[in-house]
Design brief:
2 copies of one chain form a homodimer. Chain A is built from 14 helices and 16 strands. The first copy, chain A, is an alpha/beta fold and about 425 residues long.
Chain lengths: ~425, ~425
């Protein structure tokens, strides 16, 4: 039990700050060896991990957590294997730290460039999935940051058991033990402290439901890299290839319902609505996707399928995360772009068109972290973008936008070389 | 007079948001033409500008503003010329917006890259210098952002007169008039509103004294790009060339006293203190620089000059912005680096050394926005770094670090191209 949360968190913070200095100059080899050592300890301790998780699961059942939550909370041998794989994969990524770019001579004779450096201390606040402890720790380690992890209270035993493996790995390689710290209290005040210690914490990354993230953004005194809504659109242009349109629109909705890059609203140029929508609506209905359409959509679909609900104003700004799709007919690409910028969440939006000029205009004018042409929105993902790993998706514009990989956890400093140069 | 500040600011904000959408897709030519048009109107209206400024100056004298403040407030024909030159110079910079980088094919067949885009709406809060109105407006314009400018109350008439020239320029080229808005009330509540409207403002850049910046950072609900202290160091290594050392250390302190990249503390390896310090101290004293030293420094200088004061603990973390210098002898580069990371402000720090390995270690381990080898700290400046212009210097690590030019006012979005690609 932690009696004084404020002091406890300040101590974690000041330890993390000290560790971050050492982490910043750790070699690539040291960091990779640590990731492999942690993987080894996860493997050695898998029994202990499963037992700790059992305690959390039993408590969760007693508390009446719902099935989805319990599923996210559960550790299985397969899930432990996948954490181990994840560690090895992060080790295989190239080290962003220390990379020097663009060293150029200036008229004064000095040579100026930029070197990539860690952010320092990263606070991560997440909910029930214990695997986030490893995902987050490994990415922060590889990017030379110290991290303070605050997982969900329902996963406390699991997270502590995982933390023990992380410490064992750090110790084995001689890295600072405070490079990764897992908050050991479930007191909510700990979160309040973590997000208001700019002297110790450089950035907060919250992962979880929208409520959590909004609360943290509102109260934080530290920059927050966050993801709010994923209200993503596919717009089928009248110059689009309708076969591609149907394929992409079906995939963007049905490949997975619960992700942030799943399409929530389909926009269709009214000139192609009658050709596209009836057969596409039938496909959705086979998958039990509930359809909510504007009047023109309903008219276009009427003969093909039944039960299309009239969409309300609220539908256009709703992230269903479920087998529900709103469909709207628009009279031009301009109207589609306006709709996306107004009702969307600036996450991921795709146009289906074969028109060169329109593709360029869509890319320029849609204000989203990912803009796509003839691609399913479901590709908006760090792995698909070649980042190698992902700590989250940012819907902010400051610092990092879209899927956040190792580089999103870094900054750059100027490096200036000379030979006794003085300013005139 | 503005009666309801909250509504007034929200209206500015929502107008800025709308204008920012149009600004984001303005062509390079439109933006440059606007900059030239504003320059023309400044020239045509120079009489009116001087008259408006006279009102501010008279009110300032009446209010008893000190000479330094009045100097900053004053507009002269030469200063108007320099604003005009500044506009032309920003027009000559290459346009960062729309640049697409790194388009690469992924294993899935999609092609992924990044496009540079404006941040959106930038709020700038500054004090008495009216030329900031033009500097800030021109950089925001060129980077495709809308901006809300809140200058000092003592410069209100000058800023309004400059604003009139900006509006005339925007109008002449057919750009959205709300792309640049100057807050027309001096009510302090306006600042409080500006920094707490995340729905309308994407980033705040405060320029001014430390008090202003701390207050804004503390209260803002919008990301802040800020500069706090500039406690910069030169460390003279025992493997440094002492001629270069003396030249750089003298320049870093005396070339200008009041800038954020002026050296405030000189660190000297004790093995070279006796060789370097006596003659260097004499040079400083010729310039009436007050010296505050550690005991070893005082001992080393004793024979050469008199009146060296004993430095206190406080001196090591003081930004003098004045002809005062603290000097400390250290027993190794490691101690120097530790001192810099602990007492410095992570701004700009330079080592004087001819040693290859030490230069690399200093660059890696010093956690500052600019790390230098054999260069005067006075070079830490957007113009000297080739940015073409500077809206400020960031001592943060998030988003942008060091001198902030046009690129610091932008973000990147992902561009994804395909041919009907769907996720498996």
């Amino acid at each position: 039990m932690v009696s004084n949360i404020k002091n406890y968190m300040a101590e974690l913070g000041s330890k993390a700050r000290r560790a971050s200095r050492k982490m910043a100059s750790a070699s690539t080899q040291q960091k990779n060896q640590t990731l492999f050592a942690i993987a080894k300890h996860l493997e050695l301790q898998s029994e202990a991990l499963l037992n700790a998780n059992k305690k959390d699961m039993n408590a969760g059942v007693e508390k009446g957590l719902d099935a989805a939550l319990l599923d996210r909370l559960e550790l299985t041998p397969a899930r432990i294997d996948s954490m181990i794989e994840g560690l090895k994969q992060v080790a295989s990524l190239s080290d962003p730290i220390g990379e020097i770019n663009g060293m150029k001579y200036m008229p004064s004779g000095i040579q100026v460039g930029k070197m990539r450096v860690p952010l320092g201390v990263i606070g991560i606040i997440y909910e029930s999935r214990p695997n986030v402890t490893i995902d987050a720790a490994s990415l922060c380690l590889k990017s030379g940051n110290a991290t303070i992890l605050r997982g969900g209270s329902e996963a406390l035993h699991s997270n502590q058991a995982i933390a023990a493996c992380i410490y064992a790995g750090l110790e084995e390689i001689g890295m600072p033990l405070d490079a990764v710290q897992v908050v050991s209290t479930t007191d909510r005040e700990a979160v309040g402290e973590l997000i208001t210690m700019p002297e110790f914490v450089d950035v907060i990354i919250p992962r979880g439901g929208k409520g959590l993230i909004e609360r943290i953004s509102r109260d934080a005194k530290v920059p927050v890299i966050k993801h709010l809504d994923g209200i993503c659109h596919v717009y089928v242009d009248d110059r689009g290839d309708l076969e591609k349109a149907a394929k992409v629109a079906f995939n963007a909705k049905t490949q997975r319902y619960g992700t942030c890059c799943t399409m929530e609203t389909l926009l269709v140029h009214e000139a192609v609505a009658a050709d596209l929508l009836p057969s596409l609506a039938a496909l959705y209905q086979e998958q039990n996707v509930e359809l909510r359409g504007c009047p023109k959509t309903i008219a276009a679909i009427a003969g093909a399928v039944e039960g299309v609900i009239a969409a309300t104003e609220e539908d256009w700004s709703t992230e269903y995360l479920a087998p529900v799709l709103s469909i709207k007919c628009v009279d031009s690409m301009d109207t589609a772009i306006e709709h996306i910028n107004q009702y969307g969440s600036h996450h991921t939006d795709s146009i289906i068109t074969e028109d060169y000029t329109r593709s360029r205009q869509f890319i320029t004018e849609v204000d989203s972290s990912s803009v796509m042409v003839n691609v399913s929105t479901r590709f908006a993902d760090g792995f698909e973008y070649g980042l190698g790993a992902e700590i989250g998706v940012s819907t902010d514009k400051i610092h990092v936008r879209g899927p956040v990989g190792l580089e999103g956890l870094t900054s750059e400093k100027y490096v200036v070389l000379g030979d006794g140069h003085i300013r005139q």
